[in-house]
Structure formats: C-alpha cells, structure tokens
Amino acid sequence: LTGDASETSAWFAGFNCSHTAASSDMNDNHQVTFPVRDYDLDATLDCGQSFRWRKTGGVWRGIVAGRWVELQHTGGSIAARTAEPVDDWRWLEEYLQLQIDIAAVFATFPNDEPLRRAVDECRGLRLLKQDHWECLASFILSSTKQIVQIQQIVALLCERHGNAIPTPGGEAHAFSFPTPSQLAALSESDLRACKMGFRAPYLLATARKIAGGDLNLERLRTVPVEQAREQLIQLPGVGEKIANCVLLYSYGFQTAFPLDVWVIRALREFYFKRPKPTLARMKRFSAEYFGPHSGYAQQYLFHWIRTRQRKAASR
DNA sequence: CACCAGGGTACCT
DNA sequence: AGGTACCATGGT
C-alpha cells in the first residue's frame, strides 16, 4: 500500500518561476536537490500512471532508468538520492518533467467547474516521461485490475525476471523491469505464475514482437501521434485505451486521452448528465473540448474522482 | 460475500 | 459501426 498524502501544501502559492539548476554537493554525487514550484510529488507518483513507487516514512523509492532512486519532497525542493554515483542528472529531470510550466498547461484548459475542482485537489500533479517498454508492458497488465493489484503483479514480474540493481547498504533488494528479450524467453506459465492471468499470453506475444524487431518503440517518438497509436494497437493486448496510456505517459503526446472506467464515470457525471452517452460520443467530446493538453486534464479528472472515492470509502 | 477493477478480443447483430 | 460474453485474480 502506498503512504499517506498528508503533506499539505502552501508552497505552491505564487509565482511562475522557471526551473533552475539543481544544486549538488561536489563531494557527494549520490544526491542532488531540485528546486521546484507547483510540484506535487505524492500525486505524481500515486496517480495510476506508474506502478513501481513505494512511499515509506515520507520517502518515495523507485527505479528510474535502471537505477535505484529515493525522492523526498520538502518545502520548495525535491531531494534525490541514488545508490551509485551520478554525474549527469538529466535522466531524472526528464522523468519527473521538472521543466514543465504547469501554469501554461492550466491556461489552455476550458474554464469549467469540475476541471477547476480537479486541479485544485492536486495542483502540481505532473505527467511523467516513463520508459516506453515498461509503460507498455505495465498497461498490458492493467486491464480490469485495480491499481494495487497491478503494482503487485509488476513487482512480482521484476523480482522473478528482472536483474538485481544496486541499492544503498541496508535497503531491500531492487530489480530492473525485465526487457522484451528477457520476457520473450519465458513461457506463458512462467508469466501466469506472476498472477497476471489471461493477460499472460498478451504480454508474451508483445514481448516477442518487440524483441524480434517487429516494432521499434524508440522510433515511435519521431512519428505523428495518430500513426504511433495505430502502430501500438497492432500489438497483442493493446487497444485504444492502453495505447493512449503509453502515448501519454511515456511519449509525452499530451492529446492522448485514455478513457477508462473512472474517466468515463467522470465525463458522464460532469459533462453529459442526462442521456447515457456512447463511448464514441465521449471520445469525440474529449478530443475537441479539453484542448492541446487534454491528456493532462484527463489525469486530473482521474486522480480527483478516485481520491473522492477513496475518501468516501474510508468514512 | 457479491461486486468490480486504468480492457482486449472474438463474435454477434 | 455498435453491443456482449469471456478471459484470471483478488481487493474492498
């Protein structure tokens, strides 16, 4: 289970200051501090876009670009610590999307009440820029699974079939996300043993296609979003929803708008109300209404409606 | 204990 | 084009 999100935030109030260079101790290149504004690390790491972060004692631990990373958000900065020395921190800045001007994103949103409330609930939530393969594979495992269960399946998959990663002394073992080749070499029953059920043949077939070079995930960065989506949907177990997740969370295509049960619920409740709209109608609406960063709007709506549900359940 | 979960696919009308 | 059963597992 993920930790509480009790760090209330007054720090975001105010300016629109661009990201400044990180400060790091010259004598210790295992850690760095990034000054941030309008950044909500809890919401960002616990909003269902990634599945490998765990919060313990106010500190987030995860794996980024094959490295063990610990993150702590205090005051106006995010402190990062790694197991091994790092000279260039751009991989982490890119992953966390520290350079994004979130106020400029909000400025493109339609000015309606539901979206305003969703943004107020978790202002500072960022879309990450994740590894393409990990993102794709994780969302193949996501279908009709609760986020908690996706986290468990992914953790099991990494422990059993990933590589051990260096951690600081005293920390629990960490594992990389298995590569397409690593998964391609397994059997369906190996994967079913990781509790992924009917998703196992999908993941296996897609891993084999990627490992075999049928589709180059790197190359998708360079093609238009519609074309990238079309290519992703060719993969077994990947439909429009999962393709949109990958386009949004790993490629940074911010018009990708994943329509899952929660977002469908939110759209029905706030933007349609009366006659039950068809899925096609909601697709068209979301594509034209929310603007050039509609994927961001989607993530705020998703996080807000789920947070509301969690609060209601705990009462 | 029912109900449901960040869906996709094959098959139906 | 638009609807439906089925898929496997376990959280709430």
The major β-sheet equals: 5 strands, antiparallel
Strand arrangement within the widest β-sheet reads 1-5-4-3-2
Helical content class: 40-55%
> Cα distance, first to last residue?
18 Å
Low-pLDDT runs? 1-20
Beta-strand share of residues:
5-15%
Label the overall shape: globular
Can you write the helix and strand succession as a string?
EHEEEEHHHHHEEHHHHHHHH
Average pLDDT, all residues: 91
Radius of gyration: 19 Å
Beta strands, count:
7
User: Number of helical runs?
Assistant: 14
Structural class determined from secondary elements: alpha+beta
Topology:
Layout: E1 31-35, H1 41-45, E2 54-56, E3 59-64, E4 67-74, E5 77-82, H2 90-96, H3 102-107, H4 113-121, H5 132-140, H6 147-161, E6 164-165, E7 174-175, H7 180-184, H8 188-192, H9 200-211, H10 225-233, H11 240-249, H12 261-272, H13 279-289, H14 294-313
Antiparallel strand pairs: 1-5, 2-3, 3-4, 4-5, 6-7
The protein binds a DNA duplex (13 and 12 nucleotides) through residues 48-49, 139-140, 142-150, 152-153, 192, 195-200, 202, 236-242, 245, 258-263, 278-280, 302, 306, 313.
